Amino acid sequence: MFRPDTRGIFISLCLTRVALSLLHPECEFYFQLEKEERLCLRYIAEQENRSTEGCRPLWDEVVCWPQAVTGETVQRGCPAVFSLFKNNTGSVSRNCTSRGWSKPFPAYHVACTVDDDIPETEQSYFATVKLIYTIGYSISLGVLAVAVFILLMFRRLRCARNFIHIQLFLSFILKSVAVFIKDANLFPSYDTNHCTLSTFACKASVVFCHYCMMTNFFWLLVEALYLNSLLLSSFYHSRRCLWGLSLLGWGVPVVFILLWIGSRVYFEDTECWDNTKDSPYWWIIQGPIVVSIAVNFMLFVNIIRILIQKLNPRLIQFNNSSQYRRLAKSTLLLIPLFGTHYMFSSFLPDYLNNLRFYVELCLGSFQGLLVAVLYCFLNQEVQKEVRMQWLRWQERSYGVVSPAAKGSQMDTPF
Hints:
The chain is 62% helix and 4% strand. The protein is mostly helical. A hairpin with a 2-residue loop joins strand 4 (91-97) and strand 5 (100-101). Mean pLDDT is 76; it is low at 1-25 and 404-414.
């Protein structure tokens, strides 16, 4: 779209704005320029039936030049897109000659100055962020896979609580995989124009990523509801309840994703469906996520309130105190992972976009790792079962009988 003398300027413009959005923000300027081009072409079409003397209206890929008479010098301010980087008061002129429009003077890169290079500190920041979240999702993916294997492998660990844990682990695994798939489809190479990329694979990867993100938030909500019901002693371990929770975690996001797909197909079928800026249809996905975060936060406050009451020795029987203290320990370790950091980042002001970028991408990428450690590897029942299996394997292999291996029963998990 750009001419050779302006291409380099706009590439530098695009790259400098990366800090302002979690999606590729250079497209914001591409779309803005595209909008200005459409307005200019509409203006040119309106002028077609008027006088042909002088210079006709012109779109030169940057500025829209109006109708002018021969000998007239037209002056235009720097394009609006330049003002997004710097308060530019420069202007560019063209002469209307008998041969048509002259070249712009001074040149755009002289009149509308823009830093051609991204600051080294900014390059380092984004390279570091990408490295951190890539490592975070990779480690989380591996650890979560091991955790799911452990909970499925040992029969004594199969219970309602661990069933919900497994679903949460799977949602984190899918989230990690979806992020990698989306990056691979949106940015297959550095020279790909992802602003105009519009393929089935690209759109499918974005849809899959949004679905996995939603299921992850909904399963965090299920965990919060489950823990809250345990503290209230109101949860019944029936298959119907588990099916209902599964429907909430996996099924409800499908409804919103289908509604969003329909709205994009019929009303906003542009690019790769990843540009959600100023799109009212994005709230079909964002709305339920915000609601789930808010509900999780309210459940967090309610759980803290209940625990304070339950852990008061004057309000509980002595034989129940250890059970509540045990539940309190696991709950308090888990609650900060119920999307609390998203509540924090949601209310950050615009000038702290870099911090929001870091919290949502970097800390979010390690969330699955922390959940797996707290739910599985630090769980006493899991540790006990793994230890028992290890001792039995030693007995079968080497004939070594450990006193600890004689215990055949373990505590029934919640």
